[in-house]
Structures are given as C-alpha cells and as structure tokens.
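Notebook entry, structure prediction.
Reason for the run: the old model in the group folder had no record of what sequence produced it. Starting over properly, with the input documented here first.
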Amino acid sequence: MRVRPKEKESLKDRAYRIIKSKIVNCEFPPNAFLNELALVSEIGTSRTPIREAMSKLENERLVRILPKKGVVVTGIAFHEVDEVYQLRELLEPFIIRTWGGEIDPGKLKHFRGAMAALDESVSNARKFQLDDEFHRLIVGHSHNRFVMQVLDSVYDQTQRIRIISGNLLRRRLEDTCTEHLRIIDLLLQKRLADAAQAMERHLRNARRAAFTSLAGVA
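New structure, fully documented this time:
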C-alpha cells in the first residue's frame, strides 16, 4: 500500500498558523497593532497570504481589521471571559460525568507525573501547555462532535486568558496544579461525579483569577 505524501503547507496556511500561534500565546498581546511589513519579513512571504490569514483570523475574532489604520489583536473583555467560562463550566463537567470513565488511566498517570513535578524551575509556558493538553484530553473523549467543536472554538481565547491570568497571578499557577491533581486522582478512582464537581470548582477559580488579572490591567 502506497503512503500518500504529506501535502505541502500553503503560504496562506503557514502565515495563518504562525500568526495565530503568536496571538494565542500572547506573543502578540491583546490590543497590539500588527505590522504587515514585519510579518512579511518574518514569515517570508508576500502580502497576499498575510492578508488572507488576517481575514480568517478576523472571522475567529482574534484580530480586527481597521480600514486605513491596520490590524489589531482583539482585546479580552470581561463579558467574553464570563461567556467562555460559562460554557466550559457547563460542558467540561458534563463530559467527565458522561465519558470520564473511558479516559486512558495511563494518560492520566502521565499527566499526574508531569504536573506533580512542576516547580519554579519550569517555565510558565510549559505549565500553560500542560494545562491546555490536560483539558483537551478530557474534551477529546466526548462522543458528541458538536460539543467538541464548540469547546475547540473557545480554547484559543481560553489560552490567552490563561496566560494573562497566570503571568499576573503566580499563586494561581500553583493552585491550578493542585486542582488538576485532584481531578486526576478522582478520575483514576472512577469517582466521576466527584471529578465533575472538582472540575466545576477549578473552572470557577480560573474565572475569578481571570477577572482579577484583567481588572489589574484595565
């Protein structure tokens, strides 16, 4: 059986991937203006793929294209944080209650080991990565593709909120790790109702931290 060669990434897709990654990881922070010429130089492409990528990112509400002014990374408003966490608090505990028993114990133990080993020597970026991967592990076990699509659409905003909250509130990173370990232990014990409640508390705490951090930079 012949293996089909991997399709070459288009310039538009490459520009989209690079710019989106920098926005989601706050290398391009909220409310920052993006310099088209600098992006052309950095990505190594013409203006057309950059503009096509910007159009797609605007549809995802990650940038705003301002006529005659340029492109600005969207800010993070209080009501958007509230909406993001309302959705997550409804769906993620539901996924745990419904399908949490199907999560591979080996993967849970992998995350437990990685999170238990976190200390001040580990970069915030690595901690944010583990946070994101853990939640995606849980969401990935949903048998409802619409639930997965909805949550996937808000995780880019969640990552930006997570980074801003964590960078400003170091204690929150420590609490997040403790809360994750509690959720993992309950999942390993197949105590799904308790794990779902622990997830609800974790997300409520994350919401409060996000509000506190945004109030500090408003």
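Summary: Confidence is low (pLDDT under 50) at residues 1-5.
The old model has been moved to the deprecated folder.
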